[in-house]
Amino acid sequence: MAATRNVMRAVRVFEFGGPEVLKLQSDVLIPVPKENQVLIQVHACGVNPVETYIRSGNYARKPALPYTPGSDVAGVIECVGEHVTAFKKGDRVFTTGTISGGYADYAVAAANRVFPLSDKLDFRQGAAIGIPYFTAYRALFQKGRAKAGESVLVHGASGGVGIATCQIARACGLKVLGTAGTEEGMNIVLRNGAHQAFNHREANYIDKVKEHTGMEGVDIIIEMLSNVNLATDLQLLSYGGRVMVVGSRGPIEINPRDTMSKESSIIGVSLFLETEEERHECATALLDGIEAGWLKPIVGSEYPLEKVVKAHEDIIHSSGARGKMVLVP
């Protein structure tokens, strides 16, 4: 690290609340990596819906205030702490978690949450891997027990987790259906592994899905907005089908009988609960996907750190996702 510079820009949250509580400061001390940690110069950081829930204070996990949001960074190793042998200064990397927060010029991360970034991907794509792809893999295989030949319906398939799910499911031999809210979103979904796309803003789109799947129904539904879709999801499932709850923004009323008639399951997915072993399994599969060429993150909107408030507004209220949202310091 240059001796002349020991401060950086970082977004700080001093109180929970709306997007306006995100404050960009330019005099934050650059963190120093401890044992088994690395310091990364951040070239891009993914923005995930979960970060807006945490910031609002309405999430199960509340970080100690003040804090810097952001877990998925891509960049270059600046320096490493003691006992780190897997990385060295200058290595291109991406993370699935940070200790100091990723909405900043530099971030400290535990070495076991850092992975080499292939030259096949740029930094913005690297910042789009962490939460989206690890969540998609966990939902499909570790929790959803997906098998080649089964069908999967991905709700909100044009967003970060949605595109990741389509790419992984297609590569692993599933029949992939996806929904999006715009024509452009539907085209993105089809280009990234879906066999069929539906517009979830059309009043009768559920009927179209039913028509497409016939009497069999769908084996797995990856659900980003459970508070809107869960009741109808249960009617779309096959016998023994399962809804994977990846996202929800509130309560919903369902009829439990809809699960009894098909012996279907509703399964919650939380990446925060993954074990070290599960993370390793997931990372191995995804790094193979990058090498094989089917794992190619699609980057959507890009924002400088100065526009972080707008980014948090747009990820919740945009007309339709078109790839992964990233901050570019």
TrEMBL record:
It comes from the Eukaryota. One of its GO terms (molecular function) is NADPH binding. This is Crystallin zeta. It comes from Aquila chrysaetos chrysaetos. It is found in: Cytoplasm. SUPFAM superfamilies: GroES-like, NAD(P)-binding Rossmann-fold domains. GO terms for cellular component: cytosol. GO terms for biological process: protein homotetramerization; xenobiotic catabolic process. Coiled coil: none annotated. PROSITE patterns: QOR_ZETA_CRYSTAL. Its main location: cytoplasm. Keywords: Acetylation, Cytoplasm, NADP, RNA-binding. CDD domains: zeta_crystallin (cd08253). Belongs to the zinc-containing alcohol dehydrogenase family. Quinone oxidoreductase subfamily. Homotetramer.
